Amino acid sequence: MEQGVSSIWHTLCLILLFSYFHHASPNAEGDALYALKNGLADPNGVLQSWDPTLVNPCTWFHVTCNSDNSVTRVDLGNANLTGELVQQLGQLSNLQYLELYSNNISGIVPNELGNLMNLVSLDLYLNKLSGPIPETLGKLQRLRFLRLNNNSLSGQIPRSLTAITTLQVLDLSFNHLSGTVPTNGSFSMFTPISFNGNKKLVMPATPSTIVPTMPSSKSGANSATGAIAGGVAAGAALLFAAPAIALAWWRRRKPQEHFFDVPAEEDPEVHLGQLKRFSLRELQVATDNFSHKNILGRGGFGKVYKGRLADGSLVAVKRLKEERNQGGELQFQTEVEMISMAVHRNLLRLRGFCMTPTERLLVYPYMANGSVASCLRERPETQPPLNWEIRKRIALGSARGLAYLHDHCDPKIIHRDVKAANILLDEEYEAVVGDFGLAKLMDYKDTHVTTAVRGTIGHIAPEYLSTGKSNEKTDVFGYGVMLLELITGQRAFDLARLANDDDVMLLDWVKGLLKEKKLETLVDADMQGNYIDAEVEQLIKVALLCTQGSPLERPKMSEVVRMLEGDGLAERWEEWQKEETFRQEINHNYPHHPGAEWIPDSTFNLRPDELSGPR
């Protein structure tokens, strides 16, 4: 009898435990995300993996967590979602990035988003949101990117937003906002471009737009003088507004419009969009006249100097080394503006530029942790090596940045020199893709962008090296090589030497080690074995898929992002393995074609310098 009671009691306990873990849902973040799923219609099944029976949402696609299993990112941009946002989003206390752009989401922006104190980026642009911008967003004191453009938001701009001192990018354009644009606090750095397309929104008056009021006791002659003064002032206002008007038209893809060339030495405070045009003198002072001791690095495009501006902020000044020619100024400015329009947390933000008859300089924020290459191979003994978690984040972040350049820029931007030295790390070790667009920028006097091969030996896709023609798959190849750098800690130039066999091509050697589970031969010894074998295998597989000989067989960067997030890698790898087996059977009796794979011996007898000039 006692044994029967004990058995029943044991069964009841198991039932209670099962009920607790599967119905009580102790993870509030999982509950919040599942509430978001229920509030949205998902015709493409993007949220299919969001299973409420799985307590930990870190296993769901498009969700990123930190080492404490707290949700830090939700990436649902361009997912064809409809429906409304839910107030439960405010429970994601560790969320840093909320990406819901380019969907068809309607309803209001929940006030509860103001509870997300760790939020760095809020991207809700290109939706159908309505109602006011919540005052509560002013509490987000870590927010750097706020993009609510191309919605139907109404009401006044909350003054609370001006208190966000960290705000770097603001876009409230093309809504139904009204009232006057604030000019205090962080808003003082933003130009009319941030508020364009709000018909009822009034930009604040500036000294050049104020028409002096003449005392009524003056004579008619004086009244005429006042009218003339008013006309002159109005003309001056139009003159000063012309660059902003022209730029706004250009942004709306009117190819016949150009913005004006205002000499920087005469007016160093001129801004083009959200870009500042610096004077050469400012940057000379900031860098101690481009002192050798301030050099941060050298590359194919020139030297980079550390500088400190008059306001105390640190910058990196890239001094372009290409020779100058008459008539290139307009094209240079146009390309600079194109680069500045590519804004993403995983892309290096351009702060401004300087242009004189003999100089071209670009000004970027200073990246506290340098480049991935320097962290892998040039770190001081006092600095710990990059751990596996950081390396995974670098892989995913840089992939997201490149995918943005390829899929969200119009026209798309091809990097053409993807490598560890061009992936920079901010103070939180977030990956930031640098030097994007510079290949096109530096070819501003060429009529065909395919006439010059630009890149670094070991990273250049075979078809680009042989033909000089590049596309987004050229970047995919460079990204795959960069992943191998990230895993091994070695330069691409040195990777072939690891194989230690002149008869074995590098990628075949990597495939062999993967098949034999000899990961320790590949993985950077600095990590001292502190990595997860299955995750290393996944990253190697992505690298091999990206470095296939045929550009048509390489995945797009958007597909790479999905594979790194856990969606589709197994299927893609299995498909490729079947194709490889088929090729081997077909070519069994034929010699290997030297163009079918990346053969390091074809270029590794050269110095790992950047190439330039026609091929």
Helicity, as a percent range: 25-40%
User: How many DSSP E strands?
Assistant: 24
The major β-sheet equals: 7 strands, mixed
CATH superfamily membership of the largest domain, which one? Answer: Transferase(Phosphotransferase) domain 1
* Level-1 CATH class name of the largest domain: Mainly Alpha
| Helix-strand category | alpha/beta
- Tally the structural domains: 3
CATH architecture of the largest domain: Orthogonal Bundle
Subunit arrangement of the protein: single chain
Shape: globular
Total of helices: 15
Strand order of the largest sheet: 14-15-19-20-18-17-16
Note the beta-strand portion. 5-15%
Poorly predicted runs of 5 or more residues: 11-26, 206-272, 443-452, 593-615
Radius of gyration: 28 Å
Q: What is the CATH topology classification name of the largest domain?
A: Transferase(Phosphotransferase), domain 1
Mean pLDDT: 76
Intertermini distance: 91 Å
